[in-house]
Amino acid sequence: MAGDGGGRAARSRRHDPQRRDRIVAACLEVIAEHGVAGTSHRRVAAAADVPLGSMTYHFSGMDELLRAAFGRFASSVAERFERRLAAAATAADARQAVASIIVGEVFGSRRDLVLTHELYTLAAREPAFRAVTNAWMRRSRAALERHFDTTTALMLDALIEGLTIHEALGTQPRDPALVRLAVDRLAGQPE
Amino acid sequence: MAGDGGGRAARSRRHDPQRRDRIVAACLEVIAEHGVAGTSHRRVAAAADVPLGSMTYHFSGMDELLRAAFGRFASSVAERFERRLAAAATAADARQAVASIIVGEVFGSRRDLVLTHELYTLAAREPAFRAVTNAWMRRSRAALERHFDTTTALMLDALIEGLTIHEALGTQPRDPALVRLAVDRLAGQPE
DNA sequence: CGCTGATATGTACGATCGTACGCATCATGG
DNA sequence: CCATGATGCGTACGATCGTACATATCAGCG
Q1: Which domain holds residue A101?
Q2: Span CA (A40) to C1' (D17), Å
Q3: Which of B29, B102, B128, B147 is nearest to A161 (CA)?
Q4: For residue B67, what pLDDT is reported?
Q5: Which of A120, A130, A132 best probes binding to B when mutated, by most B CB atoms within 10 angstroms?
């Protein structure tokens, strides 16, 4: 449609190293807004302000594009997760960090919640995307295991996922005190 | 393609009251296999062995079809959930029931896991589907609250969701003992 | 300054999509 | 037994999809 390429100034684009990254970023925006179901080469190209031809030039197909996009997304979330948890010194700090992660520091935006579920859905069906989620989970778990034993880390990870879902679906406001209580019940008494 | 309608015997189909149900059931199968992204009127019609025209006749559009399908799915899962939990007499029974639900009695099949996440993903973006998930959650929570206090019921619900995700994504086998331990930590000591 | 190979782009094609709509088919009242 | 309205079906249409490919564009070199 309009702006598909004709409207763009005919500036030099050769050797634009950010091009691929811009496409990936735009892809995440499109997914967040329209879902994987509504994501097309054309929409992503329009969002990234690149010609349609760039899609097949930079990516072999939709699958590679989606993998790149979700790979970047998972990595960025995992990094925030690690940073937040690395800042904790004591065990109490760590529990507080986990609670704050749940309450909103990491999964603050609806955008991220939506993207997370889109990824999970893809991974639940296609093993290729499970590599992405597995790497993500491994990093999260490793970060947790710096503060908690393996068993507790697993439980906390599950609790985070579960409360995240409720956050994404629920219209009810989440209760920080309740989150804190749940974390303490799971991780409060080391054994 | 083949069997789109031509291949079917020209028997009378008038007043086929199961028709709509069959379409809904077929829709769930298609979603489980191809995802919401890959679900089309044509594919569902083929799976249900009904002519394409029946789609627009029985449903105003894709959205109504999806809502009907996921409504039926959520209701069926919630019913199994309630039954399993209603069978519990003592508090210990209830904790065991929750653990067994997680381990696989309710979410036993990959099909159900996939469908659940497809629904969550839809609900995360479109409020119309949140009505379905809210009703489901309300039923689950009510079933839990027959055995646990409100706070604990919320936590257990979240734990179920979280461990379910790990089950759907993880290649690792879930550990029944660990699940039991997590349930007991959350619900073991009433306060 | 002209040549050239690598790089990026615009367009065209075949497939598939959702949906509208005219026609066939049957249950029913006379 | 026939006329008739309600019910279900097959098909055709416009839109949109992913992708291939010929063409345009530029950096680097002689």
Answers
A1: 77-187
A2: 8
A3: B102
A4: 94
A5: A120
